[in-house]
Amino acid sequence: MAVFPSVEEVTKNPAFPTATWQLEPHQSGLLPVAAGRGGPLNINWEVHGDGPVKLILIPGLGFFKTAYQRQTMYFGHMRGSTYSVLIIDNRGMGGSSKPLMRYSTSEMAQDILEVANHLGWTSPRQLHVCGISMGGMIAQELACAAPERVSSLSLISTAAKIENTTTFTENMVNRITMLLPKSPDRSIQYAARAIFPPAYLAEPDGAVVPDESVPRCKIPAGGYGKFRNNYERFAAQEITKQQDKEAFTKKGFLLQLIAAGWHHKSPAQLKELGDKIGRERILVLHGTADKMISTPHGRKLIEYLHPSQGLIVEGLGHAPINERTEWFNELLESRCSLGEKLSGR
């Protein structure tokens, strides 16, 4: 088993202050939503790019909108004349409100639709919706609530509902391990091993960092640094997130965890979703090395939705947005292009 550097060692790396990229949005704000739905509460949002193709990237459990910084740079900055990319902090995380109340994936989807309405993204078949993990659950709910507005739907490393696909003993050990208090080092290492395959974590840092060629990106003195390996980059981003005690709270994390745990879409609901959106517009992607949401969840989504593109990728972990960035970006770009073509644009 690989020996990973400690939190202290990672924070001393000269690249550590540059782990989060300073990508300047074209628009941003804090929108009050959920009036009449237990609110109002504020959703922190940004739009990168000013192009006609409207792409929404929905983050997973416990992650900020910056989790998509590689996609934000690719679509909203390098291709910002083609795409407008909406990224948000789901309720409970980042700059969004963290009210003490019951969260659900359907309510979080309504939050995003209110932001889209605020932006004027209300035309038929206008929204390209991509969600990973819990974000994929929210994407399902968004698509169910407004199928006529969806141009393409990309469901990444997610599930119709969380089920036990292991033995009883394995399931109990996993649950207890997840809930046990951990030191920062153990917590980050546990998350890294659940999200990524071991070989990926040990490989040299594969991130293509911004430089002067990236429009609307502030370049720090000395440029954006590289880490020794992929684990260090993930750890640096996790440490940066968890050091912000206002943006990342245990309360917000647990409330999101409840939302993900209670998410449920029946086979009949997913069949109806496929009928209304059009299966040619849907992608389901899951990896065989995903230890966060096991592969059978992805297989069931494919079975229930019958998407035009259902991919079970050998050796892929939970976060292809990081693990296979170039491939994933090109895949998502092709889904957007298909959606636009099907919509006659």
Structural class: alpha/beta
Named at the architecture level, the CATH assignment is 3-Layer(aba) Sandwich
What is the level 1 CATH name?
A: Alpha Beta
The counted number of beta strands is: 10
- Residues in β-strands, percent: 15-25%
Rough shape? globular
CA radius of gyration is 19 Å
Q: Going by CATH, what is the homologous superfamily?
A: Alpha/Beta hydrolase fold, catalytic domain
Low-confidence stretches at least 5 residues in length (pLDDT < 50)? Answer: none
H/E element sequence: HEEEEHEHEHEHHHEHHHEHEHH
**Strand numbers in spatial order across the main sheet:** 2-3-5-4-6-7-9-10
The number of helical elements comes to 13
Largest sheet: 8 strands, mixed
**What distance separates the N and C termini?**
51 Å
- How confident is the prediction overall: mean pLDDT? 94
What is CATH's topology name?
Answer: Rossmann fold
Protein name: Alpha/beta-hydrolase
Organism: Hypoxylon rubiginosum
Descriptive account of the structure:
The strands form two sheets. The protein has an eight-stranded mixed β-sheet, sandwiched between helices. Helix 3 (105-119) packs across helix 4 (134-145) and helix 6 packs across helix 8. The protein contains 13 helices and ten strands. It has a single domain, classed as Rossmann fold, CATH 3.40.50.1820. The chain has helices at 7-11, 69-76, 105-119, 134-145, 168-179, 184-195, 198-202, 230-243, 250-262, 267-277, 295-305, 320-323, 325-342, and strands spanning 22-23, 27-33, 41-48, 53-58, 83-88, 127-132, 150-156, 217-218, 282-287, 309-313. The N and C termini lie far apart (51 Å). 41% of the residues lie in helices and 16% in strands. Strand 4, helix 2 (69-76) and strand 5 form a beta-alpha-beta unit. The chain has 345 residues and is an alpha/beta fold.
